[in-house]
Design a protein that fits this description.
Helix 3 (43-56) packs across helix 4 and helix 4 packs parallel to helix 5 (102-119). The protein has 6 helices and 5 strands; from the N terminus they run H-E-H-H-H-E-H-E-H-E-E. Strands 1-2-3 form a 3-stranded parallel beta sheet. It has a two-stranded antiparallel ribbon with strand order 4-5. The radius of gyration is 16 Å and the shape is globular. It has helices at 3-13, 29-34, 43-56, 72-84, 102-119, 130-133; strands at residues 14-17, 90-94, 122-126, 138-143, 146-152. It has one domain: P-loop containing nucleotide triphosphate hydrolases (Rossmann fold, 3-Layer(aba) Sandwich), CATH 3.40.50.
Length: 157
């Protein structure tokens, strides 16, 4: 694929949740979530979609706060809202709980599981936390860059 086609594919089909949040420090939570939509829709639609995504992650009351005014958990929820706002088919989450306390981390994972269940979004989550990995439908263990083991849980009825 050409660069433009790859960029369009990444923008429209893949949502990214980074361990370090990757929020713009001079942009509000709302502006950070609006970023992926800037080339896709009208400004009114962008704002509406971003507000809906932030509401979905429980941050409707923090729309106009800069990242420095948000807790680590709130910053991660802004990052998740940014990943969700384009309605991707896949979310890639790199250690999304790595910088959070255990309670906030579990709330973030509950939110990611909810997105998977309700929207049918495939979530690829990278973690070093064995307890978190146990919650996955399928796990792939990688050691020194090589697949060591792949396990899939039996489907539940």
């Amino acid at each position: 694929m050409k660069d433009n086609a790859l960029a369009k594919l990444r923008l429209e089909k893949i949502g990214y949740v980074f361990q370090q949040f990757q929020l713009l420090s001079t942009a509000t939570a709302l502006e950070n979530v609006m970023m992926p939509l800037l080339t896709m829709f009208s400004s009114a639609q962008i704002k509406k979609d971003a507000e809906e995504a932030l509401t979905r992650v429980g941050l409707a009351h923090r729309l106009h706060h800069l990242p420095s005014r948000l807790s680590g958990g709130e910053q991660q929820r802004v990052a998740i809202a940014r990943a969700l706002v384009t309605k991707p088919e896949i979310i890639l989450a790199d250690e999304p709980t790595g910088n959070l306390d255990s309670e906030t981390g579990m709330a973030i994972i509950d939110l990611i599981e909810k997105v998977h269940e309700e929207d049918g979004v495939t979530v690829v989550l990278i973690t070093h936390d064995p307890d978190l990995a146990k919650r996955a439908v399928e796990t792939i263990h990688v050691l020194d860059g090589k697949v060591e083991q792949s396990l899939q849980k039996a489907a539940t009825v």
